[in-house]
Amino acid sequence: MSLSTESIPTMRTASTSAPIVTELAERWSPRSFDPEATVSDAQLTALLEAARWAPSASNHQPRRFVVATRGTHEFDILVDALIGFNAAWAHNASALIVGIAETSTVEGDKRPYAAYDLGQAIAHLSVQAHAEGLHTHQMAGVQWDKIVAAFDLTENLEPLVVTAVGTVAAAELLPEALAERETAERTRLSLDELVLSRS
């Protein structure tokens, strides 16, 4: 099947109760990626720079990354570690990035907010990706032990997320069940449900 652009839902702008910046309103997480598209070194560096400059508790910056582009041995290792639906589509992404939380220093000092700080970094990376004309999709359905072993991660380095990066393709390229999810309406809880108190 050719990568026709006619049915590619590149604009899925969120319906917000107040205006927000374009990169946030238009960011979404596709599963259908163009298997022929590539991501440049400059683009990857921009994504990682955005992650690097995300805030962190006491500026400890307890996040690390493994970056692999399609066509490399490292990319194949990451694809092999994916489980469930993730394994059906992520191999078409241009790159896969493992987000790793540094839960303590090598001396044993705890980093209690490492997961939160990693989350902030991945959020920054995702927004930068959209500004670069790319899309991301974060995954937790992963056999983490395979990644720990393959990249020789020490006990204080805990992989928590794999982010697919690439160029969105037509939903019809996915298996039927995934294609339906790809084009389903975007939804979020209302602010009234999320905000417990506002004065």
Write the layout of secondary structure elements.
Layout (H helix, E strand, L loop, with lengths): L21 H5 L14 H12 L10 E7 L3 H9 L4 H4 L5 E8 L11 H18 L3 E5 L4 H7 L6 E10 L9 H8 L7 H4 L5
Antiparallel strand pairs: 1-2, 2-4, 3-4
Helix pairs in contact: 2-5
Question: Can you tell me about this structure?
Answer:
This protein is α+β, with helices and mostly antiparallel strands and 199 residues long. Helix content is 34%, strand content 15%. A four-stranded antiparallel sheet has the order 1-2-4-3, sandwiched between helices. Helix 2 packs antiparallel against helix 5 (114-131).
H/E element sequence: HHEHHEHEHEHH
The CATH superfamily of the domain at 33-167 is NADH Oxidase
Radius of gyration: 18 Å
Average pLDDT value?
92
Q: By helix and strand content, what is the structural category?
A: alpha+beta
Output the CATH topology of the domain at 33-167.
NADH Oxidase
Given the C-alpha coordinates, what overall shape results? Answer: globular
Strands across the major sheet, in which order?
Answer: 1-2-4-3
Please report the number of helical segments: 8
**Percent of residues in beta strands?**
15-25%
Distance between the termini: 54 Å
CATH architecture of the domain at 33-167: 3-Layer(aba) Sandwich
Number of strands: 4
The largest sheet is: 4 strands, antiparallel
By CATH reckoning, the class of the domain at 33-167 would read Alpha Beta
Fraction of helical residues = 25-40%
**Low-pLDDT residue spans:** 1-6
